[in-house]
Amino acid sequence: MPADAPPMDGLLRPAGLDGVTEACLPSPCVQNHAANLALLADGSLACVWFGGTMEGASDICVHLSRLAPGAAGWSPAERMSGDPARSEQNPVLFTAPDGRVWLIWTAQRAGNQDTAIVRRRISADGGLSFGPEEVFIDTAGTFVRQPVVVTAAGTWLLPIFRCRTVPGVKWSGDNDDSAVLRSTDGGATWATIDVPASTGCVHMNIVDLGEGGLVAVFRSRWADAVYLSRSFDDGRNWSAPEPTDVPNNNSSIQMIRLSSGALAMVCNPIGAAEDTARRVSLYDEIEDEDDAVETVSAEPSSQGRKAFWGTPRAPLSILLSDDGGRSWPARLDLATGDGYCLTNNSVDGLNREFSYPSVVEGADGTIHVAFTHHRRAIRHMRVTERMIRGE
User: Fold this and answer.
1) Are 132 and 80 a contacting pair, CB within 8 Å?
2) Cys-Cys with 114: which of 56, 75, 171, 186 at CB 3.0–4.6 Å?
3) Is 19 within the bounds of a domain?
4) Rounded to whole angstroms, what are the CA distances from 142 to 22, 119, 158, 217, 284?
5) Rounded CA gap, 122 and 105, in Å?
6) Are strands 242-243 and 227-231 parallel, antiparallel or unpaired?
7) What is the dihedral of CA 369, 311, 86, 120, to 10 degrees?
8) How many whole angstroms separate alpha carbon 205 and alpha carbon 207?
């Protein structure tokens, strides 16, 4: 591991920031990426992510670790999936109102996100053990990244994004858009709600503001800004996403509402305008013998734009908003560096990104953040709202 990160033994240690503790989760994999955190009924903090040799490779699968209340460190990684023909990515945990814990994730062929389907396993014992794998969404090209939200009215909302391609052209993200799966019967059936004018806006993250009001933020394929949309009717309709004043680098973000009422968002607040180097695509290092298209098309998307890959993924910062996402004046940088991500190579230690954050708030007010450290480890940090505000 790089000198600026703790060993991957899961033990909590003081971090370089005053009052902050951190750990790197145990994993047998050379590459670990795309963490998602969840609080379980017994008070444990659970984290899921994908690991293997490189994103898109067929050995990429889902792993899970737990941090029990009062424990000194995280448990050894438990492998949760293992399809030898697909790259299994972007796992998410969700505790349903009935106490069952859902684990959902994507499964794609090599670097072709337009082939992805969504699978799930369900736990009936609070996340201690999980039932068999099953297909949850079989529509090719469906991707998840953010958890299910249960609104005050009891409606379930699962944000998805759809990896669309032009026939004969390899997926590169140019035509991706967002939608919401909405259920009023506890997840038994789902209606698809399109987010209007959302091409290029992905990783939709929904937060319930109460009284039927919802706010959502998006990652931008154009690497320009975090986008924001609102719903005022319990998720039946959404406004077209509009750019905020927070930059985005075409990398994942996550937002929650704290017990204080403030919104906390973790992201890389940097845009492509600050760096011109770019990659051909996210999967330009993955061989795909079954794909007849050898290169990514240079043709523009239906919106006349190309997804921008390669903007540095650093710093990794947590921001606060006290006005429902209209402004983000408070900021704390959790990890800094050059954020080099023109390669996904973890074997040779070439990637230096801090990315793909997840954030939850514990019952005691502690804010937990997990994120990718150099595509090598999942790093967990604990902060407080006062620290972010500089108090």
Assistant:
1) no
2) 171
3) yes
4) 33, 11, 12, 19, 21
5) 12
6) antiparallel
7) 30
8) 7
Q: In the predicted model, is pLDDT for residue 19 greater than 90?
A: no
Question: Taking 50 as the threshold, does the pLDDT of residue 296 lie above it?
Answer: no
Residue 118 phi, psi (nearest 5): -115, 130
Asked if residue 291 is part of any domain, the answer here is no
How many whole angstroms separate alpha carbon 362 and alpha carbon 9?
22
DSSP per residue, 29-46: -SEEEEEEEEE-TTS-EE
The residue among 51 and 303 whose pLDDT is bigger is: 51
pLDDT higher than 70, residue 292: no
pLDDT of residue 295: 36
Q: What's the domain count of the chain?
A: 1
Q: Is residue 292 part of a domain?
A: no
Cβ(339)–Cβ(247) below 8 Å: no
Residues 120 and 109: their CA atoms lie apart, in Å, by 17
In a domain, 297, yes or no: no
Host domain of residue 112: 13-286+303-389
Q: What is the pLDDT of residue 273?
A: 77
pLDDT at residue 158 greater than cutoff 80: yes
Which string of DSSP letters, residue by residue, matches 225-291? --EEEEESSTTS--PPPEE-SS---S---EEEE-TTS-EEEEE----GGG----BS-TTTT---TT-
The answer to whether 36 and 48 are in contact (CB under 8 A) is yes
Please give the order of strands across the beta sheet that includes 367-373. Answer: 13-14, 21-24, 377-383, 367-373, 354-361
Q: Which two tokens stand for residue 289?
A: 């013998």
Helix then strand then coil, in percent of the chain rounded to 5, is 0, 40, 55
The arithmetic mean of pLDDT across residues 8-14, rounded, is 95
Per residue in 319-340, pLDDT (tens digit) is: 999 999 999 999 999 999 999 9
CA angle 260, 264, 270 (to 5 degrees): 160
50-81 pLDDT tens trace: 999 999 999 999 999 999 999 999 999 999 99
